[in-house]
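--- STAGE predict ---
source: upstream dedup step, 1 unique chain passed
mode: sequence only
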Amino acid sequence: MADLRDDPYAPYAATPAAVGTAPPTHEAPAESGGAVESTETVVTAETTETPEAAETAEVVGTVEVVGTAERVRVLLAAHPVLDGHSGLAQLLRHSPPHDLEFGESALDTDLPRLRAGGVGAQFWSLRVPAHEAGHHRAISATLELIDRVRAMVDGCPEGFRLALTSGDVTDARNCGRVASLLGPVAGHALGDSLSVLRAYHALGVRAVTLAGARWADEDGALSRFGQEAVREMNRLGVVVDLSGTREDAMRGVFTVAKAPVLFSHSAARALTDHPANISDAGLALLGANLGVCMVSFAPDQIARAGRPPDLRDVADHLDHVREVAGPRCVGLSGGYGAMADTPRARGLEDASRYPLLLAELLDRGWTDADIAGLTWGNAARVVRDTEFAARTAQQRRGPSTATIEELDGAQAARQRQNGWPAGSA
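--- STAGE serialize ---
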């Protein structure tokens, strides 16, 4: 297995031999509702199929496709998916217990489907709704989510493993567990306090999103306290998530940050105008930062005019992010963790469908190294580099004692005392 420190863009020395079972075969979507017809026969250097195996190769439409499924299987065995956004914690907070280990038909994700999809790690979103932004309710709600996820991970030791460091992520994957990273936490759930940020970190949180926080959202720019919050996240080793952050605030973060950032669930605004998506100018800044845009599968973030969204739309967004920001700056964000009947892009209905998307990208000319970076290497690098940046920062400075009242003035103090204004999150 590839180590977390391996460069997915270095030439492969050898192709893995034993890679487990192949991912399930599903029909890919098309405008006509049938299967997508390939225009060429795919044979790769990595394919080791015998003539007998070739006879049983998958037939899509009327054209035989040889080697693509095997190529995806080999790639996922060495470079599984590190997914940027699982919403399961919020769902289970208000739902009865579910059997994630043996399969849960009422949900769009569980361990069997995560394994079939080649998922080796995921961020567990701990974002609480905007209506819980005031009077410290957001803090207690976030603590409940942390408690729920940790209990879920502890209750399923053969499937999940809590990951607090980049080494934990690697170890979990190499042991066949899904590495579980806590976060992102909602910015408004920090309560305008760096002490609360440190408390979350002590509980295992490794990502915080700035969207919704007054100091990153209210005036569209990053305030002085917001700048100090980013510095403290870098010092602690907490990944800064910019999904949904306004562009002026985003630029402020790129100016201050000493570690790569993450967009945990975004796509290309040039293709779909959605507030959580990134403009081309933002993608260019992301490329300079060597951060990662985890491209969302959410239908409203990838939909194009004229037809229902499907996996080809996600592939279009991935192509665009790769072209503008660079191949080292793109990742995957399935956003699974909802009821099974939740609207989804066709072809990506549940967590087992990642191999279909990768097959589409291979057919578009993505290289093995590009796929390795997309699924694992790029996001894993952000986790690792954030951790390394924290070690450096901790040698130079201790915990910040700054308050929002000191940095942002008396008005911020009054707003904090009275609770967050309606709609601020």
